[in-house]
Amino acid sequence: MKKNNFNISLNREKCILSVTMENFEYKEEDFDEFLISFEAMWLLIKNEKLICHLYINLENCLGNYNYPLQVYIKMASCLSDLTATFNSHCHGIAILTKEPEICTGVYNIIIKLWHPQPRRPILLTDKMSEIKLFMKSNKLII
Fold first, then answer.
1. Dihedral sign from CA coordinates of 127, 132, 133, 134
2. Which residues pair with 120 in a beta bridge?
3. Is the pTM of this model over 0.85?
4. Distance between terminal CA atoms of the chain?
5. Is-contact 18 59, C-beta < 8 A?
6. Chain center to CA of 103
7. Is the CATH number of domain 6-137 3.40.525.10?
8. Model confidence over 58-71: pLDDT tens digits?
9. DSSP secondary-structure letter at 64?
């Protein structure tokens, strides 16, 4: 599913749900469309009884993370709705970014609003080699 600022794709062979964000300028309608698409992909994964890694590529996003509070609230709400699905269908979350420190701060804001238990492993890094190792070493066992 490719839209103006994002692409969401599922590689069934490798069991990876990939999300690529590019130059994401906040527009409420576009962001809502992204969240609906993201939730729909996880529903598909659940219905097909797959267990996948979530790989988020933010390498091409501009360094503007000054989004309105409603972005974080909506993201936390979406993640809360998906918590049970993550716990049974998500190995872990790997985020590739040029600015892992800033993304860690954003993640910490979201975590203050979203309190999943248990929490799936997450990696925020600027190195693809770390993501490959993370995906090999983090597997959900059911």
1. positive
2. none
3. yes
4. 29
5. no
6. 12
7. yes
8. 887 755 556 777 88
9. -
